[in-house]
Amino acid sequence: MYQNHTIVKSCTTTIILSLLFEFNDTFFVTQQKIAFNIYDNKESSTSKNVACNSSLCEQQTQCSSSSGGTCPYQVEYLSENTSTTGFLVEDVLHLITDNDDQTQHANPLITFG
Questions:
Q1: Mean pLDDT of 27-40
Q2: What Cα–Cα distance (Å) separates residue 57 from each residue in 43, 52, 69, 91, 93?
């Protein structure tokens, strides 16, 4: 199990996770509330904008002086007239394993918009 240990000073959203499992031909359902912080790149000390000249930037032709050299993105969804646009951000996701034997840290660099 991985846990996110990034501390963000912003609002949170809560989801309810329902699990179904079987034991001795009997089915059980359990529910657990999980609170997630909403990411705010201005509150992160490791956040960086992805530059237009980055190999991660697939829309380099859409870069303009108004973007400040930051790579834009646009995703159009299958639902009619729905899309999202913005700028790509790169940040470190701080993860640790929840293992009784040995704690291991992983800090992958992720890119998202």
A1: 74
A2: 23, 6, 11, 15, 20
